[in-house]
Specification:
Elements lengths: L1 H13 L27 E4 L2 E7 L8 E7 L6 E6 L4 E4 L2 E3 L2 E7 L7 E11 L4 E12 L4
Parallel strand pairs: 2-9
Antiparallel strand pairs: 1-3, 3-7, 4-6, 4-8, 5-7, 8-9
Length: 141
């Protein structure tokens, strides 16, 4: 502040009595910023699937999942179902990709069933879960 005070004192000598000079100085300092890249993560959409079938009838239509990476690098992934009536095709791949999910209702009685598909990428340690529900309705006479 010493230099600013000296400037004001010197300026006062140049101005007529009763006048004041206000001076504002703005300094901008630009520094290069370095941002760490976020690690890519495995993503799967949708996060839930619902199937409906009639007891003793054919399997419901397959449904699709989209598997992608949040980063620019592709990720390898694999899928595992927690129940035997859910099939995932393919069981492994590289992002971006898609997978088909089917529900096999052979031998199932009327009721509601739930399962889970676990998607994992060893490259990131990322895990995603897709919840699957199956409603088997009784046959109508």
């Amino acid at each position: 502040m010493r230099h600013l005070d000296e400037f004001i004192i010197r300026t006062r000598r140049l101005l007529p009595r009763g006048l004041a000079l206000c001076l504002a100085v703005t300094l901008a300092l630009w520094l290069p910023a370095r941002f760490a890249r976020a690690a890519p993560a495995l993503n799967v959409t949708p996060t839930g699937l619902s199937f409906v079938a009639v007891e003793g009838a054919s399997n419901p239509s397959m449904q699709s999942l989209t598997i992608f990476s949040s980063g620019s690098e592709p990720l390898s992934w694999f899928a595992v179902s927690s129940v035997t009536w859910v099939q995932v095709i393919p069981l492994a791949g590289t992002t971006p990709s898609s997978a088909l999910v089917s529900a096999n209702v052979a031998g199932m009685t009327a009721g509601t069933y739930t399962g889970t598909i676990f998607f994992t990428s060893n490259q990131t340690g990322t895990n995603k879960v897709v919840f699957v529900s199956l409603t088997v309705t009784p046959q109508t006479p």
